[in-house]
Amino acid sequence: MSILLVEPFYGGSHKQLVDLLQEELADCVLHTLPAKKWHWRARTAAVHFMQAIPASTAYRVIFSSSVLNLAELIALRPDLAPLRKVLYFHENQLVYPVRKCQERDFQFGYNQILSCLVADVVLFNSSFNMESFLSSIPTFLKLMPDHRPAGLDALIRRKCRIYYFPLRFPDVSREHDKDPELFLTTLLKLKEEGLSFQVSVLGETFTEVPDVFSGAREELAARVLHWGFLSSREQYLEVLCQADVVVSTARHEFFGVAMLEAVHCGCYPLCPKALVYPEIFPAEYLYSTPEQLRKRLRDFCRRPDRLRRHRVKVGVTPLPDGPHTHYGGARRSIRDWRM
């Protein structure tokens, strides 16, 4: 029981990662909170884990996602301070899109910076995630009225590594940052053109479902194969294997687990030429504008035979510097952050 796995938001990719680590590592113990009320988890989880984690001299490593304010937990539990502290970023709050600027809570991003300063190793699921976080720190700290710290990005960078996400099969979220409006609007325009297609919209949502979903479901009713959350992993995989194309319209994505898993099941990917996608997908699978996306899908509707003969070529672009781990495995890098 030398590795302490701590996950304040135990759902989706967060759950997938710590479950995999628990399977891979025999000497670990997992402490979690349910994947509800993300903002409250970020604000208050440290106090919960202060009480929930029993004292033990066996601990050697603590591994947590960046939802946890690691600095608070270590301050509340000084017995954990000597452990090797590993922080994993599924996403970062410095560039997370919000609907209104005034909605941003400065403390969320600030907590992540503090956690990095306390951590010994900081892992990111992509180069895009890491660079967008580090490069945003100086600008983010300018929100402070005075006495702004300098050089924190350089201090944190020394600890950073890329650890591509190990692939399993979670569900696709329908959050506003995935821009479902663009996706569904594109499908409705294809329908108006009289093109033939079928659609599956999968996944759970942790916030309010965007209004566009209810109207689009009614208008696309005859073309809908599946709509909503599938509780069975086998059902989810079966739907993916039946599909020809998987589309991302995300405005916020630091890795894109669901896209890669759909590709693994045989889907042709169409992704924005932005965010993390150029790091993983060749140019032929990227689009720059909504018009380009609609044109690609229109062509696929007219010539599905070409699409089905295509063999998808996807791989992670090698990074020019710094250690990283391919998304297909876990063991090879675990020994690095346990040292």
TrEMBL record:
Keywords: Glycosyltransferase, Transferase. SUPFAM superfamilies: UDP-Glycosyltransferase/glycogen phosphorylase (SSF53756). Its EC number is 2.4.1.110. Residues 175-301 form the Glycosyl transferase family domain. InterPro entries: Glyco_trans_1 (IPR001296), GT-like_domain_containing_1 (IPR051862), QTMAN_N (IPR022701). It catalyses: queuosine(34) in tRNA(Asp) + GDP-alpha-D-mannose = O-4''-alpha-D-mannosylqueuosine(34) in tRNA(Asp) + GDP + H(+). GO terms for molecular function: tRNA-queuosine(34) beta-mannosyltransferase activity. Residues 2-167 form the tRNA-queuosine alpha-mannosyltransferase N-terminal domain. It holds the Pfam family Glycos_transf_1. Belongs to the glycosyltransferase group 1 family. Glycosyltransferase 4 subfamily. Glycosyltransferase that specifically catalyzes mannosylation of cytoplasmic tRNA(Asp) modified with queuosine at position 34 (queuosine(34)). Mannosylates the cyclopentene moiety of queuosine(34) in tRNA(Asp) to form mannosyl-queuosine(34). Mannosylation of queuosine(34) in tRNA(Asp) is required to slow-down elongation at cognate codons, GAC and GAU, thereby regulating protein translation. This is tRNA-queuosine alpha-mannosyltransferase.
